[in-house]
Amino acid sequence: MFYEHGERKFVILCFCVDDILIFRKNIDPIYHVKSFMPKSFDMKDLEEVDVILNIKLVKDESGITLLQSQYVEKILSQFGFMATNTL
């Protein structure tokens, strides 16, 4: 879903069940979205996300990288494969 804020500016809203991620390079439009959302929805701001749906988000100067290694390690550990070198 795209929320337009001004001319040729947008904020990306990603919905997943009861979570919403808000993406934008500039923080000001995000503050605007976060100011009107609670008027219509019961919500709380958890600030910057680190992990969602077992996907780790790593932010640096080049952008955002999505890593599933945390999820893979969790599954391997669950089935006892973390101690082995071969699968």
Write the layout of secondary structure elements.
Layout (H helix, E strand, L loop, with lengths): L1 E3 L5 E7 L2 E5 L3 H14 L10 E2 L2 E6 L2 E5 L1 H10 L9
Antiparallel strand pairs: 1-2, 2-3, 4-5, 5-6
Shape annotation: elongated
Cα-atom radius of gyration: 17 Å
Q: Given the structure, what is the number of helices?
A: 2
Distance between termini?
40 Å
Beta strand count: 6
What is the H-and-E element order? Answer: EEEHEEEH
Q: Structural class from helices and strands?
A: alpha+beta
Residue ranges: pLDDT <50 for 5 or more in a row? none
As laid out across the biggest beta sheet, the strand order is: 1-2-3
Helix percentage: 25-40%
Q: Oligomeric status of the shown chains?
A: single chain
Whole-number tally of structural domains: 2
The largest pleated sheet is described as: 3 strands, antiparallel
Mean pLDDT: 79
- Strand residue content: 25-35%
Model description:
The protein has 87 residues and is of the alpha+beta class. The protein folds into two domains: 1-46, no CATH class; 48-87, no CATH class. Helices cover 28% and strands 32% of the residues. The protein contains two helices and six strands. A three-stranded antiparallel sheet has the order 1-2-3, with helices on one face. A three-stranded antiparallel sheet has the order 4-5-6. Strand 1 and strand 2 (10-16) form a beta hairpin.
